[in-house]
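I hope you will forgive my troubling you with a question about protein structure. Could you please explain, in whatever detail you think fit, how the structure tokens follow from the sequence? Thank you for your consideration; the sequence and its tokens are set out here.
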Amino acid sequence: MRCPACDSPEIRELPEPFGPREAPVPYARCLACASLFAVGALAAHALGAHDWTRVPRPAPHSRQAWRIARMLRGVGDVALVGRADAALMAALAKRGLRVSACDPNGDIALPLSKSGLSVFVGTPGAGALAGEFDLAIVEGLVEYAAHPVEELAAIRRALRPGGRARIETPQADGLALQQHGADFFLFAPPAARLLPSFDGLAKLCARAGFEFVTRSDAPPRSGSWHFRTQTYSRSWVRVLERAIDPLYRDRSVLVVTASVR
């Protein structure tokens, strides 16, 4: 057994499984890069179509999409990988960018494709990312992919020379995971396969063929995730969590930019 992020054999299985009692999942910690990942039968089991429909998704945010569109000046072709966001695609198209998307959730992708948007069902590793791009915005993929290095390698092959991938994923040492532990909602079915550290994600990108990996200062788009869908026994805990929600976003979600020459 090896770490899916850095491929190190130096791992330690955690003594207690994570997730709900009716569907516990064993996890291990990589001693080399500190990433957290599922072990056992779940580790290599690819998510089916029904599983992808249950993956938590951030709600589309038109104002946030407009801000991102302003940041992408000089970019020609953009791919949204993992989560097709109609609001973001429309905002980018208004800026004159050519936008495509691949989303493994058919319930999301099929209606968008029927409305005329260039959206395909599936993941990059399964051949759903067609074309060449200057930028790939990757969300909701790394943490659930059975073979994340293959998915990122497919994204790398779809990028033109000088292209970039903006990768966003919950992190192994994030604030939300520190607070909620085994009850963190990403461990509920379908449980996340990999929660990387920055070091782990950087090594994963290098294994996939990216030359440069930097930590991004831009706020995560997944800040619209509802971390307060957690269950609490006392109302004052919910009030406190709402008060520090901006801190949750920046310290719970890892955002990196991986580039190719």
Notes: The radius of gyration is 18 Å. Confidence is low (pLDDT under 50) at residues 223-234. Residues 171 and 195 are 5 Å apart (CA to CA).
